[in-house]
Amino acid sequence: TEQTFIAIKPDGVQRGLVGPIISRFESRGYKLVAIKLMTASKEHLENHYSDLAGKPFFPGLIAYMGSGPICAMVWEGREVVKMGRAMLGATNPLASAPGTIRGDYCIDVGRNICHGSDSVDAAKKEIALWFKPEEVQSWKPAQFDWVYEKA
Ligand code: GTP
Ligand code: MG
After folding, report:
1. pLDDT (average), residues 36-62
2. How far is the CA of 142 from the centre of ligand 1 (A)?
3. Which of 65, 86, 89, 121 has its CA 20 to 30 A from that of 79?
4. Of these residues, 8, 106, 115, 117, which one is catalytic?
5. What is the pTM of this model?
């Protein structure tokens, strides 16, 4: 099954939004398979956002992302990469519809509270960057057969 890397950024952690964000993925029926709080180094973040090196906002992005603990997670389930992005909303919160995480909880593109992998390939790379294989759990939630007709 598909997995995606979702991270609550330092502003989301500071603002007490860890619970509400986790709740949305849980109640959708997705499965939490890894989670930890960590303050990421500059090198780690430059690696995570390597595609954006050279953008004018890059130094600010790295400073923001390293400013405090991040809640790093792996979520699993059917089409979770695409649905995770849809649940987050647009990069710019002002372009995110109400009902999405960014559309409900934030305003500024430089303080947009959460990250989600943008493709299955990116998800694989990001999960490998943020988690050791043994930190990712394999388990069957009690509700599994009530979420999926056929696994
Ligand atoms: P992530 O899920 O964090 O990767 O966001 P995204 O995939 O929606 O956007 P992208 O990967 O293009 O940019 C990564 C992050 O850089 C965004 O989430 C923003 O926090 C920040 N960012 C992107 N564009 C801008 C911008 O124009 N200005 C500023 N200040 N920050 C930006
Ligand atoms: Mg991105």
Report:
1. 98
2. 36
3. 65
4. 115
5. 0.97
Closest-CA residue, ligand 1 atom 30, reads 110
Nearest CA to ligand 1 atom 28: 57
pLDDT at 147 over 90: yes
Which tens digit of pLDDT belongs to each residue from 98-144?
999 999 999 999 999 999 999 999 999 999 999 999 999 999 999 99
100 labeled binding residue: no
**Residues 87, 143, 123, 100, Cα dihedral to 10°:** 10
Ligand 1 shell residues, CB under 6 Å: 52, 57, 60-61, 91, 109-110, 112, 115-116, 118
